[in-house]
Amino acid sequence: MALSPAQARAEFGATAGYLAAASMGLPCRGTVAALREDLAATFAGERTPVDYDEAVATGRALYARLVGVAAEDVATGSQTSVLAAVVAASLPAGSEVLTVEGEFTSMTYPFLVRPDLIVRAVPLPGLAEAVHDGTTLVAFSYVQSATGDVADIDAVARQAQRHGARTFCDVTQAAGVHPVDAAKFDLTVCHAYKWLCAPRGAAFLTVRGCLAEEIRPAQAGWYAGRDVWGSTYGHTLDLAPGARRFDVSPVWPAWVGAVPALELFTSLDVAEVWRHSAALAASTLEALGEPVRRQAIVTLPDEDGARLRALTAAGVRASGRAGRLRLAFHLWNDEDDVERVVRALHRARTTA
Known about the structure:
With 352 residues, the protein is of the alpha/beta class. 35% of the residues lie in helices and 14% in strands. The protein has helices at 5-9, 29-43, 53-67, 80-89, 109-112, 127-130, 153-163, 252-266, 270-287, 306-313, 335-351, and strands spanning 74-77, 96-100, 118-122, 135-141, 166-170, 187-191, 203-207, 297-301, 319-321, 324-328.
């Protein structure tokens, strides 16, 4: 039986008022314990690089399970932009990349630095309709970082298939809080340090099977070899099959900490996490007299940062993005957090 958000909350420490999962997730107790054990073993001279292969393999398998693809379709990395750059480097000159206005730059800069590509941005609600026969790739986020808006992924996938375009989706702001089926896309990318609560440095790229041979692994190194420890020297290229050819050498402690976090999230019903988080966000907006939106990230106008300062003074950890206050509700939040936010913002409004 899957853990409920309330049960999973016990796996975290002091979370009261923490509404910044969209910026950085909190480590679970398992992650903290694993990192402490690994650091102690390293301090004692008891670790070798080979020892971390198991953590990477386990992390790959757990993430594959979480997003509904085979482990051989998952590559491991350390940053969203680096993995996106591999996708960008594979496109022929003159390709049109369709993206979203206000998209996170890790999903736009890798394409924009190539002057021989056509990059076109449209508002999120019109993304599916903007796909046409000349579109090569649709690159977008499942959940927008700045607003929390959720893409109509079925419509985008349907239109992309109709026009022969590939889909490349960043699920960083979705995986762990919203159900994700990576099999719906040709490619996805995820950095697990936000809603999946892993240490920064554990990231994933999913590649639909047939595409692995079409994309050039421009960042290939020894960890992309068929036999990792037999690929450390020489001039004979022998890359791993499947998505593993896109692996980069791991940030070792990140993977030690990522495994307990991924174990926790694969034990959850993520759809229930979404219902829980979106309901808290909706309650907050309703109490503030704002239009209700059922999504885990909600934002409010805050050009001068006054609202963010008021919450910080009240002990609430949130974030500011694009001139707006951003609140991110996750499984550890509850109605007490809603009350904290509403009370602090009402007080700020009456004293302004």
